[in-house]
Amino acid sequence: MDPLAGARLVIGVAGLLVAATSDMRARRVADPLWIVLGTAGLFLASYDVLASTTGIERLAVVLASAILFYAVFFGEPLFDERGWRPRPLRLGAFGLAGVLVVGSGAATFARGGADATAYVELLTMPIMVLVYQGFYQVGLLHGGADAKGMIALTLLVPTYPDASPFPLVPVDPRMEPAMHLLFPFSLVAFVDAAVLYLVLPLAFLVFNASRGDLRFPQALFGYRADLEPPPRNAWLMERIDDRGEHVLVLFPRRGRNRADEARRLREAGISRAWVQPKIPFMVPLVAGYVAAFLVGNFLVVTFFG
User: Fold this and answer.
1) What local confidence, expressed as pLDDT, does residue 5 receive?
2) What's the distance, CA 163 to chain centroid?
3) In which order are the strands placed within the sheet that holds 223-226?
């Protein structure tokens, strides 16, 4: 494995483990962790460009990515609860990022060759910073920490790492150029993490079977827990509805009053109920990140393997 790829693997796993631990304990991840992780990625990307001795214009892309990245954490947003808020300094920074990308691109494509290919691959850095913010806005990423984490990983691993002999299931060489452009590495980690969520029903089934508590279909979606006190970090899969009927909900809605629903169940004589644990995205993301390095893209493995 290339030393730079090894460094990215170790730094990413360490950062994500800290994030997952914090998310499990406090259901939040502090911004400084993502700032450190993203900054480490910017330094590694800069070193990678300088070590290549060609295509030095790519440093402008790294700088543009840095501007967009730090804007996520510092300064006032252009949109708030009152709508559009013109902020000259912020608009100027975004304009500078655009100039850096366009200018470096013009210089690179004028020369052409391998430099142009390397430039386009690195261009996924600023693009994915914006894409993950869009994912958050439309709900594909449910928390601000999730979006910030994916942005930091984009900077940490902007292009596919040279991790030979990994991944174990590489992309077909005929598809590789397109995959590198259309499916950046951080997106592979995101998809692998999402696919790993699909094993949760099996994990719940094994856990419930070990307790001799198999009832279907709820045994595939959670486990039974005491209602006194109400379970922390879990959604209730059972509730007493407005008509006073006891109902089962396999996909509980977020934002409901857990304490009030637990009280109504206890008043109905139910002391234990099926619950669905809140599993932070950071937990499968750690596994997805490692899988992206060592195994490959689960979607490619599934459909083209």
Assistant:
1) 93
2) 21
3) 223-226, 272-277, 234-236
Q: Quick one: what percent of the chain has pLDDT higher than 90?
A: 41
Structure tokens at 280: 């932070």
* Tokens read off for 144: 């601000």
Q: Residue 214 and residue 204: Cα distance in Å, rounded?
A: 10
Coil, strand or helix: which one is 189? helix
Q: Which H, E and C letters describe 41-88, residue by residue?
A: HHHHHHHHHHHHCCCCCHHHHHHHHHHHHHHHHCCCCCEECCEECCCH
CA distance 224 to 222: 7
Rounded average pLDDT over 162-186: 83
Q: Is the Cβ–Cβ distance between 10 and 289 less than 8 Å?
A: no
How far, in Å, CA of 247 to CA of 256, rounded? 15
- Residue 161: other Cβ atoms inside 10 A: 21
User: What six digits make up the tokens of 118?
Assistant: 């390397």
pLDDT of residue 111 exceeding 90? no
d(CA 189, CA 17): 15
Cut 0.90: pTM above it: no
> H or E segment at 272?
strand 272-277
At 44 the pLDDT is 96
Q: Is 304's pLDDT higher than 60?
A: no
How far, in Å, CA of 57 to CA of 103, rounded? Answer: 9
pLDDT in tens, 223-247: 999 988 877 788 888 888 888 888 8
* Cβ-proximal residues to 303 (8 Å cutoff; 6+ apart), any chain: none
First to last CA, the chain: 23
Half-sphere exposure of 224 (CA within 13 A, CB side): 15
- The pLDDT value recorded for residue 126 is 95
Chain mean pLDDT for the chain: 87
